[in-house]
Amino acid sequence: MKVLKKAAALMLIGVMSMTTVVTVAAAQTEEKKAYSFTYEEETVVPGEAAASALKKLGKAKSEQPLTNCADDSGHDICYIYDGFELITTKKDGKEIVSEITITKADIPTEEGLEIGDLPATVKKLYSGIKGEMGLYTIELGDTRLVIDCDFDDSKVIAITYEYAAK
C-alpha cells in the first residue's frame, strides 16, 4: 500500500511539473500586442481609460492642466508621480491615457531599459527601433515607445509610452 501511495504522489508531482512547463511555454509564446508601463506591479497601456489607470497607480503628487492645441479637446491633464508622469486626453468623448514618461532611473521598461542606459542597450533590447539625433522610436499595435538619448546620443534621459492609434 505504501508503494502505491508513493507512486501516486510521484505521478501527481510529475503531472503538476508538466502543467507548469506547458503554462510557462504558452505564456512565453504569447505575442505582445502593445507596449505597457508597469509600476509597483500595476500595468497601464497607453489608450486605456484614464480612470482605470489612475485608480491602479494611486494618487499623484500633483496635477497640472495642459493646453492641447492639436485638437478641440480642451485641456489635457498631467499627473506627476515620483519618477514618472502620466498625461490624459479626450478621444472620442472619453478620457484616455495619451502618454506616460519615465523620468527616474529605478523604473525599468518591461524589456529592462532604464534611464541612464546607453543607446547600444536601446538597440539591443528593441530590434527594429529607428533612431535619429538621439531620439529612438518603435511602434507596437496602437502604442509607440519614444526613447530620448539626448541630442548627443549619449544616454537615455527619458522613456515615453504613447497612444499611437491612427
Mean pLDDT: 85
Tally of DSSP β-strands: 10
Report how far the terminal alpha carbons are from each other. 67 Å
| Broad structural category | alpha+beta
**Which second-level CATH architecture of the largest domain applies?**
3-Layer(aba) Sandwich
The fraction of residues in strands falls at: 25-35%
What does this structure look like?
It is built from 3 helices and 10 strands. By secondary structure, the protein is of the alpha+beta class. The strands form 2 sheets. An 8-stranded antiparallel β-sheet has the order 3-4-5-6-10-9-8-7, with helices on one face. The chain is globular and about 40 Å long. Mean pLDDT is 85; it is low at 15-29.
Which key phrases capture this entry?
2 domains, Pathogenesis-related Protein p14a, 10 strands, 26% helix, eight-stranded antiparallel beta sheet, alpha+beta, 166 residues
